[in-house]
Amino acid sequence: MNVTIWNEYRHEKESEIVAKIYPNGIHETIATFLEEEGFNIQTATLDEAEHGLTDEVLANTDVLIWWGHRAHCEVEDSIVEKVKQRVLDGMGLLLLHSAHFSKLFKQLMGTSCDLKWRENGERELLWVVDPSHPITEGIPEYIELEQEEMYGEHFDIPTPDEIIFISSFAGGEVFRSGVTFKRGKGKIFYFRPGHETYPTYYHKDIQKVIRNGVKWAKADNTPEITYGNYYR
Amino acid sequence: MNVTIWNEYRHEKESEIVAKIYPNGIHETIATFLEEEGFNIQTATLDEAEHGLTDEVLANTDVLIWWGHRAHCEVEDSIVEKVKQRVLDGMGLLLLHSAHFSKLFKQLMGTSCDLKWRENGERELLWVVDPSHPITEGIPEYIELEQEEMYGEHFDIPTPDEIIFISSFAGGEVFRSGVTFKRGKGKIFYFRPGHETYPTYYHKDIQKVIRNGVKWAKADNTPEITYGNYYR
Amino acid sequence: MNVTIWNEYRHEKESEIVAKIYPNGIHETIATFLEEEGFNIQTATLDEAEHGLTDEVLANTDVLIWWGHRAHCEVEDSIVEKVKQRVLDGMGLLLLHSAHFSKLFKQLMGTSCDLKWRENGERELLWVVDPSHPITEGIPEYIELEQEEMYGEHFDIPTPDEIIFISSFAGGEVFRSGVTFKRGKGKIFYFRPGHETYPTYYHKDIQKVIRNGVKWAKADNTPEITYGNYYR
Amino acid sequence: MNVTIWNEYRHEKESEIVAKIYPNGIHETIATFLEEEGFNIQTATLDEAEHGLTDEVLANTDVLIWWGHRAHCEVEDSIVEKVKQRVLDGMGLLLLHSAHFSKLFKQLMGTSCDLKWRENGERELLWVVDPSHPITEGIPEYIELEQEEMYGEHFDIPTPDEIIFISSFAGGEVFRSGVTFKRGKGKIFYFRPGHETYPTYYHKDIQKVIRNGVKWAKADNTPEITYGNYYR
């Protein structure tokens, strides 16, 4: 299992608050708990050449994890296009938190992917609504995060193939926080939590969900499809 | 449009609190705001012969509304079977609040239809998550109910065809509060609100959702299907 | 109901075979049977200024019908973007036949939208698999087309919200021929039949499906959604 | 992985044609190719006490396979109820061919589960329409069966959670031949092929699909859910 973790990696370098929580970047924190699972981990960040996503890196990636926020517009269109094609060809994709507004997610969804938000450090409860889904393996019936950014409905995405988690926030909003989509031969999991100013990725159940998501998103050896002019 | 409103009609006769809110029964309150829409309304209740659901009544019903709670087990199996067949043959069905645990709903769903609940008079917010659905016509992006019974996930139903509303409760729980299912040629809408001790069915937006639901559930003149041994 | 019919309108001008079937263009044939329904019809074609899709035309369109084939790449990106935004804002969209490969459909879907095809004039049967859907109103349980182009699975689209028709072809292929999607506040119906060298749009049941599709796709007065930084 | 194969086991004892193809019963043929996978196999048949489905057998079953046809009505209601509860509690379930009309499937679905059929020994092609699904691992883009019973739409089931295969038959009918459903914590896979008078279960790709289906249907260690009166 080859996992590549892509991180914008700007907040951690520019904000003391964020740097205290994720001193080596969000990607390294995620790498640490995925390595425990025995996965082969690479990382890639925005400011590297080709954003760290060379053809070779992508060719050797079974599942890509994406965290981005304030610099979505700095991601090169050509790289977005290349990553999107790899997803359609079968690379798994996990999008975390503000990656909902990445070029990559918006192009795969075809919608605005907009939502409500509020930075108010309020309690989030993530409730399991699909308790037979492999992504819920080993977790309790809800996950409590003491402080998170609020994301609220309406979340402007296509009807998900599966809804696994629905969140409530202390302010009363709700959100489809764990949703899956199939696009081409690629499996996509969007998972809401992980604002940079809270230690969300140190939470054991959040880590478990991400580990489960990576395993779920990896492609099987499914049929080669022929397209175009066709005679059996 | 012929609408039949079925009500268990026990709480209103046995509890002063409920009788004050719905002096003529929940069915009559619902009848009043549906008549404004120009629908032809009949009512039927548990303690009538055949629970008021004779073959003639059912044959003249385009959409059936169902409210039941503590006497689900008193509904005759033969009546449940008859109503279920009418739904499969194309009669629309709206199930309100505790009708989630009716024999009728459980047999149409095939699951336990169980959930969490708490009678604590707490605030419910119903958020629209499908803002292109005809059932949301004319309502705001969320409906606020000051006091309601809490229903919480996991709600043990099959994956709905559509999720229109998701609720949050003051205590932090969430619930898929407006969900649709197609079964046979029948269209089914489950809508959560309406505990008997709160004046929920006087709320203008709740009334609007129920009116919209009735219109949505009515069958069109869709194809006659042939089953069995077949040669074109 | 304001309906705009967009047609590439090239085959009809360049091929005698096509011109014989659709002497005034496919759009005029479709316009004729939609006018019988009392809809207000406009048409627009590729070679007009802005492809006939000015801001004013789009603002006055409830439902847009799209037929394109060999000149998908000549449709300006800026027009595609404008039409896509109108769909997300609530304009209904019907895509016919080879419109599966239009820029518009591909950007709304986020996938390749590829498929198998064969021009062999073979029999197509379109079977209703959702006999409670309003788009099937007034049609039989299958529609037979004596001669059509074959389209075969795998059709590389996201999981549709609804599958209404599945086709078989004389050669043995199958295809999800009538599928719906919600994107933003827009309702989308893709309907497979209509190769330019066959008189498909004169078939009474095909016309009925398109009329039903237009009615289904028109937006209701559904909730205004607020996005962005939010405090209730 | 503990797999129990339930077979009606009547045709094989009463028909010479069937006995020639499956001399030890369909269940033994299925057992043979599942044992190659390293699964622990038990079998159970209608004419055994409790139809071979004692509490102990069910408690030790991760995935149950069901083949029945002409004696659906002889299956005891109490056994059906017990098996249904085990599915809702997380036991995987594969239903093969005419098991679409078993009491078990009908009660889990809530619909008639009716369809068109024709015993005419005609060619079936099963096309993959979900090429990212683990059940399609290792198979080609379509499976050809030289002779099978025809099953045709409309298949009166709830909207499946996933459609994996769609069949065409030589006569022109289509069928959703591989469909999945989640019910409670149980995962259900209905797979169409396998009429008793054809050697379908000796086909390598059919065997592969059933093996994949068993692996997919096995429950993970997903959350324990609490239902009823609830205070966090």
What labels describe this entry?
homotetramer; 232 residues; Rossmann fold; nine-stranded mixed β-sheet; 7 helices
Can you tell me about this structure?
Four copies of one chain form a homotetramer. Chain A has 232 residues and is α/β, with parallel strands linked by helices. In chain A, 25% of the residues lie in helices and 31% in strands. Chain A is built from seven helices and ten strands. Chain A has a nine-stranded mixed beta sheet with strand order 2-1-3-4-9-8-7-5-6. The longest helix of chain A is centred in the last third of the chain and has 14 residues, at 204-217. The mean pLDDT of chain A is 98. Chains in contact: A-B, A-C, A-D, B-C, B-D, C-D. Chain B binds chain D through residues 84, 88, 107-112, 114-118, 150, 152, 154, 156, 158-159, 161, 171-173, 181-184, 225-232, and chain D through 84, 88, 107-112, 114-118, 150, 152, 154, 156, 158-159, 161, 171-173, 181-184, 225-232. Strand 5 (116-128) of chain A pairs parallel with strand 10 (228-229) of chain C, so a sheet runs across the interface.
